[in-house]
Amino acid sequence: MVKRVQLVLTQDVSKLGKLGDLVDVAPGYARNYLIPQKLATHATPGILKQVERRREQERQRQLELRQQALEQKAALEKVSSLQIAKQVGENEAIFGTVTAQDVADAIKAATGQEVDRRGITLPDINHLGTYKADIKLHSDVTAQLNIEVVAS
Asked: Which of 30, 83, 101, 126 is the most buried (most CB within 10 A)?
């Protein structure tokens, strides 16, 4: 009696794996659910070669993205600080707050590079002054930038 069956997933399956993953499952789970639903196929030598080729292509793509992120980090760190002008009220308190979109727009104006606003982490900015912003460019590449809030 076979204990486990090796399959290659053709779709993402929650709590099991992602597309292209090689998984070991119980034969009944494979025979009654995964294969009839076309969520997986049997792992043959040809399919295993295709999976390995896809993994290598994905690894190369991730390396290229990381290299681009490192170049972008170097360009961002050349800029010593960004100035963002806001309206000021009493006690140097600004109206509203400085948002990640404000910082992304300032980066685009200063360097001409697009930065995803969702990757920008800011402290609470409610007064004039200088603050540090963390900008996540890749899963393991983060740049730090000084943000200077000035009166408009």
From this structure: 30
Cα–chain center distance at 24 = 29
Convert the pLDDT of each residue in 61-76 to its tens digit: 999 999 999 999 998 8
Of residues 45, 54, 56, the one with CA closest to residue 20:
54
Q: Distance of CA 36 to CAs 41, 43, 86, 141, Å? A: 10, 15, 60, 42
Percent of the chain with pLDDT over 90: 69
Q: In this structure, which amino acid lies at residue 104?
A: A
Cα separation, 137 vs 99, in Å, equals: 18
Instruction: Calculate the CA dihedral of residues 85, 91, 96, 102 and round it to 10 degrees.
Output: 30
